[in-house]
Amino acid sequence: MASTALKPPVPPRRRRASPLVRRADLVAATVSCLAHLGAKGTTGREICRRAGVSHGLLRHYFRNPDNLLLETYEQLCEDMLAQMEAVAMPHAADPLDALHRYFLAVFSDDWAGPDIIGAWMVFWQQARSRADFAAVSDSFNLRQRALLERLVAALPARADALPMADAIALLSAVLDGLWIEYYLSDQRTPRERCVALCDAAARRLFGV
Amino acid sequence: MASTALKPPVPPRRRRASPLVRRADLVAATVSCLAHLGAKGTTGREICRRAGVSHGLLRHYFRNPDNLLLETYEQLCEDMLAQMEAVAMPHAADPLDALHRYFLAVFSDDWAGPDIIGAWMVFWQQARSRADFAAVSDSFNLRQRALLERLVAALPARADALPMADAIALLSAVLDGLWIEYYLSDQRTPRERCVALCDAAARRLFGV
DNA sequence: TCGCTTATTAGACGCTTGCCTTATAAGCAC
DNA sequence: GTGCTTATAAGGCAAGCGTCTAATAAGCGA
Questions:
Q1: Are A83 and A105 contacting, i.e. CB atoms less than 8 angstroms apart?
Q2: The pTM is what?
């Protein structure tokens, strides 16, 4: 009968999903939203739109859109650190090789691809004015540096070397700077050149 | 008489200003707004509020808030490049000294102070999705690099030196990376340390 | 001093947002 | 199957935004 098809504005689909899956969906939609629309375009409603759920559902899983943003940031940092460690630490015996793998991972699609790279910039922006975002950012930076230190620990000490803290800080800066360069134009400075420049910087900073 | 004071919600002040002054006011308010409230908080109405004018005035001077943002970005880049050149070029005869002055200027309150530093992050964010912002960013980077090249041109060529393009790219990355570091926490990496690290990087990259 | 240009304000409109409340049904336990 | 939990949807509400229009007066040239 036509009436059953016409009268009620039938909810198109109402599949239930496990809370963990839905939360992950919303987090993923948030990253995509941030990457493609920036801070201004990332609204709670737009995130839900991308996740394919009604806008009321966000509140069911997160206190508010801001909180979803923060949790997304936390999870992204956690995941990235875990992968960095998994990729580089097994080769810590050959520091320059371990660093090279680290660089490759940093500029991989997983963390610098078009569907995610823009999100980091928004998080950094938040870190300036919001203490909770700043805390996540601080913890991330600290742990990232600690990992770098472990990676270069096996390098032989050289007489003309920089103080280790300075060398780490500079390598870290080169990474961030090239990341931005790549962010602004992957045409002008493609991924392979970024990695090559990182390698060159590592050799210069820690001795050949 | 009370009536004259009470009846009309008297416009508190309606001083006229020259178009150039008002435009400059609005641009300055935009920078301040971006720095303190980020992309999301920077609305046309908030900018006008900070500039002390009614929200209708924005439209009288700029096509829309977005356009004001773009013009602000352009002017900021122009001003910064001009100052960088004025500060460093007179000392080009002593490249390391010229670079040092350049670094000092980059991390000065004029361009990295709390009332402005956050604005750059927002502009970078825009550059990713908006072609007009990307064009400004590209031009700025190009000219900044050209200036760096002129500054180090007088350095003696060394046998073990990096290709000049690589060295410039790395120095540029160090600058951007430390700038972010400073942006994220001027406590952890204070201004003087940023400049010192830049100096160290320059010595390493271009030979002592 | 008068009048014209235009800088400036104020208000209305439609839209979107975040928040909240209510209604519905999906899927598990029994 | 039946019933309860709860994931999900949908709509209402106030507030804020960008855009536009109309009204006002500031300050200059005559």
A1: yes
A2: 0.91
Tell me the three state secondary structure of residue A22.
Answer: helix
CB-based burial label for B136 (10 Å; 0-12, 13-18, 19+): buried
The C-alpha atoms of residue B162 and residue B149 are separated, in whole angstroms, by: 14
Q: Residue B21, CA: closest nucleotide via C1'?
A: C7
CA A170 – CA A68 distance, rounded (Å): 33
Q: Give the C-alpha separation, A157 to A95, whole Å.
A: 13
- CA–CA gap between residue B74 and residue B139 (Å, rounded): 10
Q: Which of B124, B138, B143, B144 to mutate to test the interface with A (most CBs of A within 10 A)?
A: B124
Q: What pLDDT was estimated at residue A66?
A: 97
- pLDDT per residue of chain B (208 residues) written in tens, 0 to 9: 333 333 344 455 578 888 899 999 999 999 999 999 999 999 999 999 999 999 999 999 999 999 999 999 999 999 999 999 999 999 999 999 999 999 999 999 999 999 999 999 999 999 999 999 999 999 999 999 999 999 998 888 787 788 999 999 999 999 999 999 999 999 999 999 999 999 999 999 997 6
Question: Residue with CA nearest C21 C1'?
Answer: A56
In B, what residues contact A, Cβ < 8 A?
36-40, 117-118, 121-122, 124-129, 134, 137-138, 141, 162, 166, 169-170, 172-178, 180-181, 183-185, 188-189, 197, 200-201, 204-205
What distances in angstroms separate CA A137 from CA A141, B7, B119, B166, one per listed residue? 6, 54, 19, 29
So what's the pLDDT on residue B14? 75
Candidates A125, A140, A185: best to mutate against B (most CBs of B within 10 A) is: A125
| CA distances (Å), origin A42, targets A31, A50, A87, A119 | 9, 10, 32, 10
Residue A126: partners with Cβ closer than 8 Å, 6 or more residues away: A39, A69, A73, A133, B38
- List chain A domain ranges: 69-205
Residue B95 contacts residue B155 (beta carbons within 8 Å):
yes
Specify the fold of A69-205. Tetracycline Repressor; domain 2 (1.10.357)
Distances (CA, A) of B162 to A21, A171, A197, B173: 50, 16, 10, 15
